[in-house]
Design brief:
Layout: H1 3-51, E1 58-64, E2 67-72, E3 78-84, E4 87-92, H2 93-135
Antiparallel strand pairs: 1-2, 3-4
Helix pairs in contact: 1-2
Length: 138
């Protein structure tokens, strides 16, 4: 193999390495988005369950990971939603569920775009591998 081929092979190896790193990042992003969707689904279920409770009902409310406090529910039909800048607004069950559904839709749209990018990068990586095998057969 000549010096030109050796140099081209090194370039292709670097290009392949970059593609592989990007593919790994996208897989991590997709996994994180999947986790966010699961959390939103759990939140939607919890909102539905809480909205069915009668005023005065007791419930354990999480205050930290694995730490709960027993609380009495006054208004199961109202939820406080953090809208940013240290501001929370009151929303109904339907408004909260609509917000969650919207967030899940946004995340699924991001997942779709990332999946398309993943496929494009994988195709590019496969083309680089084919070029490498032509440069250095065997």
């Amino acid at each position: 193999m000549g010096d030109g081929n050796t140099e081209r092979l090194k370039e292709k190896q670097m290009e392949l390495h970059v593609h592989e790193q990007k593919l790994q990042q996208i897989q991590q992003y997709l996994s994180a988005l999947e986790q966010q969707i699961a959390e939103l689904q759990q939140t939607a279920e919890a909102v539905g369950e809480i909205a069915q409770l009668k005023p005065g009902a007791s419930s354990f409310v999480p205050i930290s990971s694995g730490i709960f406090v027993k609380a009495s529910l006054d208004h199961a039909s109202e939820f406080l939603v953090n809208v940013g800048a240290h501001t929370a607004v009151t929303k109904s069950k339907d408004e909260v569920l609509s917000l969650i559904t919207s967030q899940m839709g946004d995340i699924k749209e991001m997942q779709q775009k990332l999946a398309e990018t993943f496929l494009q990068l994988r195709g590019a990586a496969e083309r680089v591998q084919q070029e490498m095998s032509r440069i250095s057969p065997g």
